[in-house]
Amino acid sequence: MATNDRPYVIVGGGLAAAKAAETLRAEGFDGEVTIIAAEQERPYERPPLSKGYLQGSTELHEVYVHEEGWYRDHQVDLRLGVPATRVDRAARLVELGNGERLPYGKLLLATGATPRPLPVDGADQDGVHYLRTLADSQALRAAFGHGGDVVVIGAGWIGLETAAAARKAGCRVTVVESGPGPLYRVLGSRLSGVFAELHRRNGVRFRFEGGVTALRGDGHVREVVLADGEALPADEVVIGIGAAPNVELAREAGLEVNSGIVVDAALRTADPDIHAAGDVAEAMHPLLGRRIRVEHWANALNQGPVAARAMLGQDAVYDLLPYFYTDQYELGMEFSGDIEGHDQVVIRGSDLEFIAFWLREGRVVAGMNVNVWEVVDDIQALIRSGRVVDPEILANPDIPFI
Question: How much is the pTM?
Answer without folding.
Answer: 0.95
